[in-house]
Amino acid sequence: MLRVAVLGAGRIATIHAANVAAHPDATLVLVADPWRAGVDALSAQLGCEAVYDCNAALARDDIDAVVIGTPTDTHIDLMLAAVTRGKAVLCEKPIDLDIAKARAAADHVERQGGRVMLGFNRRFDPDMLRLRQGIDAGQIGAVRQVIITSRDPGLAPREYLAHSGGILRDMTIHDFDTARHLLGEEPTQVSAIASRLVDPSLEEIDDFDSVMVLLRTASGKQCHINCCRQAVYGYDQRVEVSGALGVLLTDNHRPSTLRHWSAEHTEALEPLQHFFLERYAEAYRNELGAFIQALTAGTALPTGVRDGLYALQLADCALESIRTGRVVASGLSGA
Ligand SMILES: NC(=O)c1ccc[n+]([C@@H]2O[C@H](COP(=O)([O-])OP(=O)(O)OC[C@H]3O[C@@H](n4cnc5c(N)ncnc54)[C@H](O)[C@@H]3O)[C@@H](O)[C@H]2O)c1
User: Fold this and answer.
1) Is the distance from the beta carbon of residue 91 to the nearest atom of ligand 1 less than 6 Å?
2) For the segment 229-240, what is each residue's pLDDT rounded down to a tens digit?
3) Does 74 sit in the ligand 1 pocket, CB within 6 Å?
4) Do residues 106 and 89 make contact, with C-beta atoms less than 8 angstroms apart?
5) Whose alpha carbon is nearest atom 24 of ligand 1?
6) Residue range of the domain that includes 96
7) Mean pLDDT score of the chain, rounded to an integer?
């Protein structure tokens, strides 16, 4: 049994802790968070130890692997401390908000031979897994264009947004990873536009709520990401990949396939699954399963610290393009 500690007792850590506790090949030893009431409640619910200091949790010998679900500005310090103590890490996105710090951390992890997986959960969504399998099986031939729609149901609270690192590093970061994952080549050119169409007062925190990003790889493959902090009809998550032999599409999820016909409308469907915790519940489960499976089998982790770094690099390039109005060279290369 893999002995796992979950750092954090907030929104995402609660999901990871429950998935560890339910996994047949893992034991949830502890959850750690300075928020005593939160960690006490979570540990009581899942039947594990409550620890109030993440570094104390990392110092323990009875932990093989840690899941980092704490605020973004704590990720790298906790990751490096865990790697130094020989523990494997599943770290939430984004790796950090500062590219130089992320690059130094990636170098450090690799020098130490650390096992770090970045939590880009959307790769493990069943729809995305099928889509990727379809590409690999040659169903659409060579990939030409990827179109990603990613819209949240509504603006997060201002306090969250002010510390989020901005829409590109906090939210579109998922889509940059999806783009890399599906294009199969690194995007080398980045251009982007951004607006404040939902809340003009976001200018006070130098952020935007609506962005469109174009990516191009060295061989000419293209990706269009459209990302918005608000969609009044719900959490809108769609991906389209076109290739030489066809198109693969993933669509939104609803609680059921029920359709309502009446005097006022036809084909009325139930609302979309509300937000990420519901929409990606299976993706988080699969992600954790892939982490545990790779560690127990001694095989390569499906994502690594460089995936976190490269997604952040693309976010920074998009921001530069927004500020300068120019197409920006990403500095990434190769397949
Ligand atoms: N992959 C995804 O879909 C996804 C979804 C949500 C959040 N996230 C990421 O997960 C991370 C946490 O987000 P969240 O929404 O769960 O936040 P949250 O605020 O709900 O939870 C964060 C927890 O960390 C604790 N904490 C605060 N300071 C700490 C410190 N210095 N050391 C240790 N713990 C500390 C808080 O007490 C809190 O319980 C962020 O990096 C976020 O970007 C990823």
Assistant:
1) no
2) 999 999 999 999
3) yes
4) no
5) 70
6) 2-114
7) 96
Nearest-atom index, ligand 1, CA of 120: 1
For residue 335, pLDDT beyond 60: no
**Residue 267: CB partners within 8 Å, gap ≥ 6?**
259, 261
Same domain for 166 and 106: no
Share of the chain above pLDDT 70, in %: 99
User: Does ligand 1 have an atom closer than 6 angstroms to the CB of 71?
Assistant: yes
Rg of the chain taking only CA atoms, in angstroms: 20
What pLDDT does residue 271 have? 86
- Which token pair is 143? 């990939």
One-letter amino acid of 35: W
Please tell me the distance from the alpha carbon of residue 213 to that of residue 215, in angstroms, as a whole number. 7
Sequence-distant (6+) residues with CB within 8 A of 248 are: 131, 134, 135, 139, 140, 240, 241
Domain count, the chain: 2
> Do 74 and 135 reside in the same domain of the chain?
no
Amino acid at 289: G
The answer to whether the CB of 164 is under 6 A from ligand 1 is: no
CB distance 121 to ligand 1 below 6 Å: yes
| Closest residue by CA, ligand 1 atom 41 | 72
pLDDT tens column, 272-331: 888 999 999 999 999 999 999 999 999 999 999 999 999 999 999 999 999 999 999 999
d(CA 234, CA 240): 19
Rounded distance from Cα 170 to ligand 1 centre (Å):
12
Question: What atom in ligand 1 is closest to the CA of residue 75?
Answer: 41
What is the bridge-based pairing of β-strands 116-119 and 88-92? parallel
Domain boundary among 85, 114, 143: 114
Q: What is the pLDDT of residues 80-131, one digit of tens each?
A: 999 999 999 999 999 999 999 999 999 999 999 999 999 999 999 999 999 9
Structure tokens belonging to residue 3: 């002995």
- Ligand 1 mutation pick, 12, 79, 117, 178, max ligand atoms within 8 A of CB: 12
